Amino acid sequence: MTFGMTAEILARIQFAFTVSFHFIFPAFSIGTASFLAVLNGLWLWKRDPAYLKLFEYWKTIFAVTFGMGVVSGIVMSYQFGTNWSVFSDKAGAVIGPLMGYEVLTAFFLEAGFLGIALFGRKRVGDKLHMVAVVMVAVGTLISATWITAANSWMQTPAGYGIDANGIFFPVDWWAIIFNPSFPYRVTHTVLAAFLTTAFAVGAVGAWHLLKDSQNRQARIMFSMAMWMAAIVTPIQIFAGDAHGLNTLEYQPAKIAAMEGHYQSHPDGAPLILFGIPDDKEQTMHYAIEIPKLSSLILKHDLNAPMQGLDAFPAEDRPNAMIPFFTFRIMVGLGFAMLGIGLWSLWARYRKNLYTNKWLLRAALPMGGSGFVAVLAGWYTTEVGRQPFTVYGLLRTADSLSPVAAPAVGASLLAFIVVYFVVFGAGVFYLFRLFRRPPLEIEDKELDKGPTRAAGVVPGLAQEESLGGPNAH
Description:
two-stranded antiparallel sheet; single chain
């Protein structure tokens, strides 16, 4: 059951596999929770049943996604004890409290208000229900903040001490939380979650518009998604560039791997658009490059020197194969998102946002682009951190539990089977929910009574600026 690999490699693959499954659900639920808060706020403001129908439509999707995220996260955390107990022992005094704060301040907040947000409108009234929806959204953002703080500390450790036994202990919690890469990493992560949700919502809206261009709920969700794409994608590209400059300052070996620079360039480094990294020979085969552009992007100087992997000891170099390709996947998808956003602005100007068949068809495959991009970004940052768990201080090989390779291989195989069955069924159910047109949600499924404003009749409500046919 070892597949010819060591216990360390198998444990890394197992953690990457379980985190990959887990990460896609919070990346979606963070954005979806905020989307629900906006929809509920628009319903309370405009008293337009279209927004309430959309809230009911997406709250079910959010509930399923949130549940799968919680389950996958619990399973993932057990590996700190089974496969990475030495890491837990050495870094637990710093990482443990950060994860504990996430549970106390975020998960309890989400769980405490989740039931009210999903089922409590008629029981608690509009105002308290809105508070509950906002609290769930805020909880997801706080959760992302604490988890990102923990990961950022592992990338750029600060505010710590190390005792004679190699155990990390906190010295300055402000420095630990607000470590050098934290502001860039949390901004990049949250914006990525918003874009992941936006393009998923946009794809669902496009699917239903291709079937019925007059579906008002589909018009609203597609319009909102395209506004998010057009506005947030340029901000994300700027944030990603700032994050890259921060990484160059604190993790230059990771940047060298991402850029595919095996050799240092004293008089300006080229931007390698494509090539085949060879970690064994420490060279790039079939490189397609633009001279000096990497130095211009990273140091704003065509002739600025750039370190390659040869500037670091061989035992401290990350393998470039995975970061090189995953970084290009992430960047490529980012510019594809920007293209869709700009295209949507042109379609609005031409007043055919909801009837432009080619735009709608292009939005369909982009529905999964956010998920692929966040995974590619995670692989880039985590593989690029190797061979360390705490960058420059604690090696991955020294973080492993005293566990045999066959045991790790057997548990990895079990995870693969169970995850694909359980979460595969969950994803299949989500796609069934996506395929259901929002108009099929009958009025009897919506809350009655005081939430329905007098004089507002479904189908006769005034067209709003986001989804109205006169606001293309």
